[in-house]
Write a structure and sequence with these properties.
- The structure holds three protein chains of three kinds.
- Chain A has ten helices and twelve strands.
- Chain A is of the alpha/beta class.
- In chain A, helix 3 (about 115-125) crosses helix 4 (about 130-145) and helix 5 packs parallel to helix 6.
- The two termini of chain A are about 35 Å apart.
- Chain B is mainly α.
- Chain B has a single domain, classed as Orthogonal Bundle (MetI-like fold), CATH 1.10.3720.10.
- In chain B, helix 8 crosses helix 9 (about 195-230).
- Chain C folds into two domains: about 5-225, Rossmann fold (3-Layer(aba) Sandwich), CATH 3.40.50.300; about 255-320, no CATH class.
- Chain C has twelve helices and twelve strands.
- Chain C has helices at about 45-55, 85-90, 105, 115-125, 130-145, 150-155, 160-175, 190-210, 220-225, 245-250, 255-265, 300-305, and strands at about 5-15, 20-30, 35-40, 65-75, 75-80, 95-100, 180-185, 210-215, 230-235, 235-245, 310-315, 315-320.
- In chain C, helix 4 (about 115-125) packs across helix 5, helix 4 runs parallel beside helix 7 (about 160-175) and helix 7 (about 160-175) packs parallel to helix 8.
- The chains are: A alpha/beta, B mainly alpha, C alpha/beta.
- Chains in contact: A-B, A-C.
- The interface of A and C includes residues 161, 220, 221, 225 and 264 of A.
């Protein structure tokens, strides 16, 4: 793989995460769940990169492994040219000032025994040496950015609605002014009318704070709206990668095509023509040979069963991992 | 820090004052607090409340029923049962508190270590705990007292050791639950040190089940002391303990039922008070209830 | 009685401490025969409890405090709210079935699929023999496109995937040929490709049988794909009701318009998403005038003072708004 170049903020190379399956009294390892098989992509400064896929495809695991919230079993992650997995625990801890994580569920990711003031001042206390007055100033500035007022500082998480809680957890992640953030399904736990509010907030903050972001989601409409590049994941591997509009307009992988067609349309007169996939996602503890998608693919051939297709450039800047990439035959 | 007052009804989270106030507002909590308060007053002010010396024998008034002179009657030596029960409250409370203190202290430490560091340390600690746990507690306590010799201190140590596993398990389980929550992952992603996570995030969330467990264990410890004294291996005469009073009364149960009724009644009141207080605490310490 | 189900003035309350809190306020609803009826709304709007009330499944302390639910059963008209336990059990699963959001927790983990299907049959047909029941179960599993029915019958729930379990739930719900199927967010817990499978299956089954389906969901896309008639719930009331094409093309209520604009502006030309301001009101904490007033851009003084009635704005199109002469502001 090429050397990490300066213009990439984050460069993920062959990331792999296996979870051991332990059995019996002695906790013997009897196998591995192949959560992330071989994932490579890069994120530029101020870019929103989306990872999209269905549950169990490894998109969240990829996000947490990049930030070393779980330890990857293989591969390299370069952040600002430095390899993260070679950092000591303490060095990594200090690095977290610049790379933060936004959790899916605001109901469980905020400590119920801490009020807003404690929640928001804690990251600053960890990474900066500020006076109480400076802390106060930074916290109030952040509160303004997320559309809340200082009189709410003494309240506890359970006194807020889901949308407000997610605002607080976004503020907690961004208060140290990181240059990079991983957002793991940040709106999927919220009501429809609230989702748009949070997405707008995230897009505003991303612009204003010049953030690079990995946006993890299963919602294809949301991904299309918020990201400039996208990686489509299936069973631990990236199946298709490229600029979002290009991938959505000209999906080359049969899985991406099925996925995009499955999204219900909002027009009862023009119902979308679904490509309904047969069967279920295979068990990641015993992934199929060859192409991970071949068990459900209509274009499957002998080659697909034996050889895993590599991610190759099928159009400029558009990569597809398929032996038979291209538009579906009519 | 400038504090702005809120018109919205809100209470601060578990500081001691607010917890006590909330407990008082809960009918069950109030009942428990009143019961325990009475026992504590009895124990603290025993010399003023008791009407006679606990060892003083009124030879002419043996096995007298309750009367104006002897409120709860007298025992086979002519000693005043009321005075002995009042002083017995001291024994019960001291034994209970010290024993639970020993159990809670060691149990908390071991549980924290086991739950937070996991791996081999956890396996070894939990193995030892399981072994202690496997013995019937009263049998183990009797065994320890038999080995150390009968004295009030040894009784407390024995009851303490027997109760360590319960605390260790409670704390370890809560630590593990808390550790797997999103907000601990969140704390890590913010960049907190391991020790800060332990003290700022894990400990406060473990304290609630721990406090409840301590309250419930107090009643257990008092009961164990009573049982041990009943069997003659607890508090030695002439010191009165509710258990030993019951034990001594065995022979006179039919002639003088008050000898059994009053110590038993106080044991029941104490145990019940601690138990309902424990249950009320469990509710009160849940942060979501504080709107 | 010309409709299958007639709900009149249904009011549901709960207890919060010693206070009685309203969760549903005088809802009228008619479900015609052989119809797929959609109920759409956000959390706490009362859509799920309405369905639960029909089958007498409200958990304590929720209760129906007023109203009537009349059902045109095979043996005559019935007032469901006055049935005793035994009569209600005969209706449940026989005449009216329900499927829930979480297929994982709706089946008992300690029994095989066969046992749970047999239980559903033998409860309503005590004279059915074992062979007959098994045949019927197999036939149902084939109907819902389970790939290996014999093997599946012998499986325990944890051995099956979410999509398969939801198919089995549907099979159990339909095994006694009910005339009404209440589906409470049946695809929310499922991935989008699996959702497409299940929705297609439900549409097919509706065509084949004489079953009416009530689809309860927060997803307007699901409604557009599957329903003929739609009721929009907000804060314990119906705010709009119409034929699906009419509702999507001539949306009258500002809330419905907002919901639609929030979802359709995803992927739209402007980067900033359309949002409905404010929060979704929690159950019972409602305004005295129009309940949407504080989030509505067209709110007037009258809206704050007075509750608008549900009125016909065009034939068979009901809307609860003072300003709904049909015009939609751009």
């Amino acid at each position: 793989m090429s050397e990490p170049t300066r213009d990439k903020l984050l460069d993920v190379q062959h990331l792999q995460v296996y979870f051991p399956i332990k059995k019996g009294l002695m906790k013997r390892v009897v196998g591995h769940v192949h959560a992330v098989e071989d994932v490579s992509f890069s994120v530029h400064p101020r870019e929103v990169f989306a990872l999209v896929g269905e549950s169990g495809c490894g998109k969240s695991t990829t996000g947490t492994a990049i930030l070393r919230l779980i330890e990857p079993t293989g591969g390299k992650v370069f952040f600002e040219g430095r390899e993260l997995n070679s950092l000591s625990e303490e060095e990594m801890r200090l690095k977290r000032r610049d790379m933060q994580f936004i959790f899916q569920n605001p109901y469980s990711s905020l400590n119920p025994r801490m009020n807003v003031w404690k929640l928001l001042s804690e990251p600053l206390r960890v990474h900066f040496n500020l006076s109480e007055a400076e802390l106060r100033e930074r916290v109030e500035e952040m509160l303004r950015l997320i559309g809340m007022t200082p009189d709410q500082l003494e309240r506890y998480p359970h006194q807020f609605s889901g949308g407000q809680k997610q605002r607080i957890s976004i503020a907690r992640a961004l208060i140290t002014h990181p240059s990079f953030v991983v957002a793991d399904e940040p709106v999927s736990a919220l009501d429809v009318s609230i989702q748009a509010q949070i997405l707008n907030l995230m897009m505003e903050l991303q612009q204003e704070m010049e953030l690079a972001m990995i946006f993890i989601s299963h919602d294809l409409n949301v991904v299309r709206h918020i990201s400039s590049s996208v990686g489509v994941m299936y069973l631990g591997s990236i199946m298709e990668l490229g600029e979002t509009e290009e991938v959505y307009r000209h999906p080359a992988h049969p899985y991406t095509q099925a996925l995009l067609s499955a999204v219900p349309s909002h027009d009862p007169l023009h119902k979308s023509k679904h490509i309904v996939l047969e069967g279920d996602v295979p068990n990641p503890a015993s992934p199929p040979s060859g192409c991970p998608f071949h068990t459900r693919c209509s274009r499957c051939t002998a080659e697909c069963r034996e050889q895993k297709p590599a991610l190759t450039e099928t159009a400029p800047g558009h990569f597809t991992a398929c032996h038979h990439a291209g538009a579906p035959k009519a | 820090m400038k504090k702005t007052r809120q018109p919205v009804k809100q209470r601060p989270l578990p500081g001691n004052e607010s917890t006590l106030r909330l407990l008082w507002q809960d009918p069950m909590g109030r009942a428990g607090m009143i019961g325990i308060g009475l026992i504590i007053i009895m124990a603290v002010f025993a010399p003023w409340i008791a009407r006679y010396d606990v060892a003083q024998m009124h030879a002419r008034n043996r096995l007298q029923g309750p009367s104006a002179q002897f409120w709860f009657g007298t025992d086979n030596f002519g000693r005043d049962v009321f005075s002995r029960i009042v002083y017995g409250a001291r024994v019960s409370l001291v034994v209970g508190i010290v024993a639970v203190g020993i159990a809670a202290g060691f149990g908390y430490l071991l549980g924290m270590i086991a739950g937070f560091f996991e791996g081999k340390t956890e396996t070894v600690i939990m193995m030892v705990m399981d072994i202690i746990f496997a013995f019937p507690s009263i049998l183990l306590a009797l065994f320890i007292v038999a080995a150390l010799g009968t004295s009030i201190v040894n009784t407390m140590i024995a009851i303490g050791i027997v109760n360590i596993p319960v605390f260790c398990r409670t704390v370890r389980a809560s630590v593990k639950t808390v550790k797997s929550t999103d907000y601990i992952a969140n704390a890590r992603s913010i960049g907190l040190k391991r020790m800060s996570i332990l003290f700022r995030h894990v400990t406060p969330n473990v304290m609630a089940p721990f406090t409840v467990q301590a309250t419930l264990a107090l009643s257990g410890a008092i009961l164990t002391e009573a049982s041990m004294s009943f069997l003659g291996l607890g508090i030695q005469p002439p010191n009165p303990s509710w258990g030993s009073m019951l034990s001594d009364a065995r022979k006179y149960m039919e002639q003088a039922p008050w000898l059994v009724i009053f110590p038993a009644l106080f044991i029941i009141i104490t145990i019940l008070s601690f138990n309902i207080l424990g249950d009320a605490l469990r509710d009160v310490l849940d942060p979501k209830l504080k709107l | 009685m010309k409709d299958l189900l007639e709900i009149r003035n249904l009011k549901i309350t709960t207890l919060r401490g010693k206070e009685t809190v309203r969760l549903l306020d005088y809802v009228d609803l008619n479900i015609p025969k052989k119809c797929s009826f959609g109920i759409v709304g956000e959390s706490g709007c009362g859509k799920s409890i309405t369905a639960n009330a029909v089958l007498g499944l409200l958990p304590y302390p929720l209760r129906v405090s007023e109203g009537s639910i009349r059902y045109d059963s095979r043996d005559g008209e019935k007032e469901l709210l006055r049935l005793n336990k035994k009569e209600m059990q005969a209706v449940r699963g026989g005449e009216i079935s329900m499927i829930f959001q979480e297929p994982m927790t709706s089946l008992d983990p300690i029994f095989t699929v066969e046992k749970q299907m047999a239980e559903a049959v033998s409860f309503h047909h005590p004279n059915a023999g074992r062979g007959e029941i098994r045949e019927r179960s197999l036939e149902m599993l084939k109907k819902v496109n389970i790939p290996r029915p014999e093997q599946t019958l012998a499986s325990y729930p944890h051995q099956l995937s979410g999509g398969q379990l939801q198919r089995i739930m549907i099979a159990i719900a339909l095994i006694n040929n009910p005339r009404l199927l209440l589906a409470d967010e049946p695809t929310t817990a499922l991935d989008v490709t699996i959702q497409a499978q299940i929705l297609k299956l439900m549409n097919d089954l509706k065509e084949q049988n004489d079953t009416s389906i009530v689809m309860i969901t927060h997803d307007l896309g699901v409604i557009a794909e599957t329903c003929e008639e739609v009721a929009v719930f907000y804060a314990g009331q119906i705010v709009e009701q119409a034929n699906v094409v009419e509702l999507f093309s001539h949306t009258a209520h500002p809330y419905t318009q907002g919901l639609l604009r929030a979802v359709t502006s995803l992927g739209g030309a402007t980067r900033k998403l359309y949002t409905i301001p404010g929060i979704v009101p929690p159950g019972g904490q409602w305004l005295s005038g129009c309940r949407f007033a504080d989030r509505c851009s067209r709110c007037t003084e009258r809206c704050r003072q007075e509750m608008p009635a549900l009125k016909e704005v065009s034939p068979r199109h009901l809307c609860r708004c003072f300003q709904n002469s049909g015009e939609v502001d751009a």
